[in-house]
């Protein structure tokens, strides 16, 4: 459900070194009057900037997280920031979901400038826009996400700390990282840095999927498969198949980094299904068929590595992988 509302910036003459940044589903001016009436400050709040958003709660989380990351937040549980108005406005303009045409006009804009532009309907020229460089490093959330990864896996000189990783993933999610929703969900699913809860994991996967992370559909399918809830597993995996090739809304392309996990899960499901009679959901079989060539390469590579790296072959594991290879070859022949 949409949460349309304003992100506002309020200033008060009695607080020259701070601004209040909040949200309201009413008018910013009304909110300023309300705050002026309930505080003990001798002067009133004034609105210095406002912007309408499709989801003002998500936008507020984004702006607060960004300003806090830059060291402007005065107190963790307050909406006051010791920051230049220009910095706050910049943070708001970077938040996703702004409703165009609702923002306050910049001070340099004049009526005379407006007279130079005529009114016209939408045409092909509206598609000619400047696009940002979408390298991962250009994302505001990227440094936090990478730091979270370092704590999660103990990369480099970072001491492994699951709880700190979870905290940083949450901050990255507030700044728009879709991949962070999958990471937070996995932390709850397996109890990594927090209490184990498949229900909470499912909630984060659902939110990630709603925002455009196709991999979260896959993770939901895995939970339902483990719970032997095959009807829901098929539904989640069907949504994965439907959305997996879609470009993520902000062109993060994080799905590419999750493909290895999908291949591994497919191999595991094939081993369990073919060698231990564990049911394979129908839609999961479609995922396997789509990736049969890549899966075959990985299985063969695993067989080769087992044979080369051990003095005595792990016969059971090799036998299971060869059953999978034979099955995949039958798929090839059937399709040919």
Walkthrough of the structure:
- With 336 residues, the chain is α+β, with helices and mostly antiparallel strands.
- It contains 14 helices and four strands.
- A four-stranded antiparallel β-sheet has the order 3-1-2-4.
- The longest helix is centred in the last third of the chain and has 21 residues, at 255-275.
Features:
single chain; 336 residues; alpha+beta; Serine Threonine Protein Phosphatase 5, Tetratricopeptide repeat; 2 domains; 4-stranded antiparallel β-sheet; 14 helices; 7% strand; elongated
Short description:
With 336 residues, this protein is α+β, with helices and mostly antiparallel strands.
Q: Largest sheet at a glance? A: 4 strands, antiparallel
Biggest sheet: strand arrangement: 3-1-2-4
SSE class: alpha+beta
Form type = elongated
What radius of gyration results from the CA coordinates?
26 Å
SSE pattern: EEHEHEHHHHHHHHHHHH
The CATH fourth-level homologous superfamily of the largest domain: Tetratricopeptide repeat domain
Show the helix and strand layout.
Layout: E1 5-12, E2 19-24, H1 28-38, E3 45-53, H2 56-69, E4 80-81, H3 85-94, H4 111-114, H5 142-153, H6 162-174, H7 178-190, H8 198-211, H9 215-226, H10 230-243, H11 255-275, H12 282-290, H13 292-309, H14 315-335
Helix pairs in contact: 2-3, 2-6, 5-6, 6-7, 7-8, 8-9, 9-10, 10-12, 11-13, 11-14, 13-14
């Amino acid at each position: 459900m949409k949460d349309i509302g304003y992100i506002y910036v309020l200033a008060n003459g009695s607080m020259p070194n701070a601004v209040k940044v909040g949200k309201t589903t009413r008018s910013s001016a009304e909110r300023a009057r309300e705050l002026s009436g309930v505080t003990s400050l001798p002067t009133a709040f004034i609105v210095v900037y406002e912007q309408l958003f499709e989801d003002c709660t998500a936008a507020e989380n984004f702006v607060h997280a960004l300003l806090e990351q830059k060291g402007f937040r005065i107190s963790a549980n307050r909406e006051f920031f010791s920051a230049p108005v220009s910095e706050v406005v910049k943070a708001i303009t970077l938040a996703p979901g702004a409703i165009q045409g609702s923002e306050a006009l910049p001070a340099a804009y004049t009526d005379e400038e407006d007279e130079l532009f005529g009114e016209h309907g939408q045409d092909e020229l509206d598609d000619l826009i400047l696009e940002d460089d979408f390298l991962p490093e250009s994302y505001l959330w990227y440094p936090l996400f990478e730091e979270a990864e370092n704590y999660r896996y103990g990369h480099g000189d970072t001491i492994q700390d699951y709880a700190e990783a979870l905290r940083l993933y949450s901050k990255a999610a507030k700044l728009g990282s879709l991949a962070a929703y999958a990471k937070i969900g996995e932390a709850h699913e397996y109890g990594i840095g927090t209490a184990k809860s498949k229900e909470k994991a499912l909630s984060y996967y659902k939110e990630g999927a709603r925002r455009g992370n196709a991999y979260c559909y896959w993770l939901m399918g895995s939970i339902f498969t483990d719970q032997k809830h095959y009807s829901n597993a098929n539904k989640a995996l069907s949504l994965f198949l439907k959305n997996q090739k879609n470009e993520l809304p902000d062109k993060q392309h994080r799905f590419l980094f999750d493909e290895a996990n999908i291949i591994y899960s497919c191999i595991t499901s094939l081993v369990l299904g073919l060698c231990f009679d564990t049911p394979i959901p129908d839609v999961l079989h479609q995922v396997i068929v789509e990736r049969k060539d890549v899966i075959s390469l990985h299985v063969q590579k695993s067989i080769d590595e087992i044979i080369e790296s051990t003095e005595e072959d792990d016969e059971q594991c090799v036998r299971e992988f060869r059953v999978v290879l034979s099955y995949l070859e039958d798929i090839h022949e059937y399709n040919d």
